[in-house]
Specification:
CATH class of the largest domain: Alpha Beta
Largest sheet: 5 strands, parallel
Distance between the termini: 47 Å
Strand order of the largest sheet: 4-3-5-6-7
Radius of gyration: 21 Å
Strand content: 15-25%
Number of helices: 15
CATH topology of the largest domain: Rossmann fold
CATH superfamily of the largest domain: ANL, N-terminal domain
Shape: globular
Structural class: alpha/beta
CATH architecture of the largest domain: 3-Layer(aba) Sandwich
Amino acid sequence: MPRAHALDRLIGEQMPSLRSAADVAALEATATYEERVAAQSTYEALQLGAAIAPDAPALQFIANATSLEPAVTLSHAQFLARVTQAGNLFHALGVGPQGVVSFLLPLLPQYYFGLLGAQVAGIANPVNPLLSPQQLAEILRAARTQVLVTIGPLPGTDIWDKVQQIRGELPDLKAVLVIGGAADPAKGVHDFDTELAKHPADRVVSGRQIRASDIAGYFHTGGTTGTPKLVRHTHANQVYQAWGLRLTLPIGGQNLLCGLPLFHVGGSLTQGLATLASGGCIVTLTPAGWRDAGMVRNVWKLVERYRPAVFGGVPTVLAAALSVPVDGADISSVRVASGGGSAIPVAVGKAYAELIHGPVLEVYGMTETASVLTMSYPERPPRLGSVGHPLPYSRVRIVKIDADGNYQGDCGPDEIGVVAMAGPGVFGGYVSDAHNRGAFVEPGLRCPQVS
């Protein structure tokens, strides 16, 4: 019989109960996390997820809000093949384990398998395309981008114009891969889909054996003020997100409505990798995601059609969905609602609890923790306004620091301090050493401080 948790070597046919702190402690006492986790890399996690039901859908892409029918559907076997081809394409373009593939894209199918394929060859660096050309150039230079994947000139987007402005400012750039036109091989601009099709889908040509400690991705923080920081994720950091959410959320083999951008860890890891590694299906809500007003207007029709067990998003999306009448749509598939990015207003949480007759789970994390690090557990009584408990094998403390960022001790009850976190998902540092100064409250402990 298959394991209930594909990424856990020790969990059998049934998921363990996590109804209490004692249950979590018992799980942790059974083995170390490293002894449990079955995947060393995001690619292995995808392989384990695909093995659950290879012919089941892994990705369904809804192209526009006027039709809720998927324009593209890829099975798990097909999706894994595309990831493999993307890894081989990037390798052929000279990207090695330390090489960087950057992405300036809306939510397209190619973004999902391109991003994960970049981690097969080297390091993926998804970037917010809404940033200014100057900010984009700073991030892409700091990452030492070798290959850039973007879209061609399309109505309603200025991404291609920005690429044209900054391309000459990227000294490490070897090639540009474009989706939707504008290919010009003589100028180093190649069509992504055409080039992808040239590469094997059944094997990793480089023969690379990815280690858990290898760098999988760079994710930028900030970007609207000051110079964005590049957070360095290992494969172990990202796999932990998929492992932890499968343990705490009913996502195994389920559809998930995905409208968060992939330059955000919530979209790429919490909703993306975690769903795929559990044998579930990403239902992508147009290239604009939840920014497409038509998707919000059709939200309950989408729930009725695609039957997600978890309805999740940032609080603004959750609140906007509440303004849409259910109008008799069958939303009984939703067992829990979840939200993160900022606090869920208590009134919104209460409204969802009444709407779905189930728990509303708040999550807390950040780019530096590869997304979710604490959350309300579905099996425990929820407390609206609280971000719950750390995921297994993670720890959270509230600490006092001095003006120089030095640890001065833990805080007592009702004492204001700094949130410090440690665990398998917590990053080891920023790409720039200058950004690491003051980022860790205790030497040797991976506890990024957040005020």
